[in-house]
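Now for today's protein:

——
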Amino acid sequence: MSKRDYYDVLGIAKGADADAIKKAYRQKAKELHPDRNADNPKAEAQFKEANEAYEVLKDANKKAAYDRYGHAAFENGMGSSAGGPRGGGQGDFASAFSDVFDDLFGDFMGGRGGAGGRRSGAQRGSDLRYNLRINLEDAFAGLQKTITVTTAVSCGSCTGTGAEGGSEPQVCPTCNGMGKVRAQQGFFTVERTCPTCSGMGQIIKDKCKVCHGAGRVEKEKSLSVNIPAGVETGTRIRLSGEGEAGVRGGPAGDLYIFIEVNSHPLFEREGLNLYCRVPVSIATAALGGEIEVPTIDGGRSRVKVPEGSQSGRQMRLRGKGMPALRGGPSGDMMIELTVETPVKLTARQREILREFDKLSEENNPQGSSFFASVKSFWDSMKS
């Protein structure tokens, strides 16, 4: 049985370009994969046929030979120097599928770089993290902060190339600049980092004496950071290009500043709102009055305490909380009253309180209600 035309196998016109060939093969590979066609006995043979066609047409030299001589280009040893197809066997599938896999995932995994799949040796520098603790007042108002970071910067002696005296890195002879080497193991093609260049794709024969070929040196640098008003613990600020310098002229990474806001002796933060517990005397809580409370901006506000206030009662000061990080109305400040019991009483104070207690049996609604419930509970237990 004569072989089908490779262009017909992939469903494309003769003379199709590399992108069209690759797109057609990917579609066929998904459509005909045996795992998706368990009920079609012909799928496996068609799958291998598509692999064989792609193995030839993806390669410019093989494709040129096929366009001129057809299948005869790979018969009787013809075209063997170009590594012609071997009847659609396992080697063809591994090579063809590996090529498509590289195309789909190579860039994401860092496996490709530069034209023709070669790596230039340049790699992006690592991102850095800096933890910055600030006070709640600074989080409210915002501030300009200078920080010192130890990082890798481009070597000034070799301008980041890693090579001495203006010489240039050379393409690695082992991997031809790919940074990876492949080995055939049965059905699979195994890809490993090149042992000669450690995945860089380049080697340096005459290394810079300052950075010893790394292209980078460690250095402390000071940076001015703008902390906007409204930040909270966990807020992340990104300084683009302030991370580690790239390798062999690659772009620098970023610096991420993570904010942690210290606890405050007066205020407790919950989102945009602030809470402040204010102790008041029994007399003020009972008779009512006015108290002065601090605000986070350093000011003062006077608050009226209603007559008969109990511990836990809250009053709201609108707009006296934290500002919104990305604009919008500020939060509120909640005043929570704590009725304070006096200590170290004098004899006269004790006498007055005992007299007051006798006269106030009817002035404690919560106590009366509680003990009425207790009495009802005990009565029910007896019955």
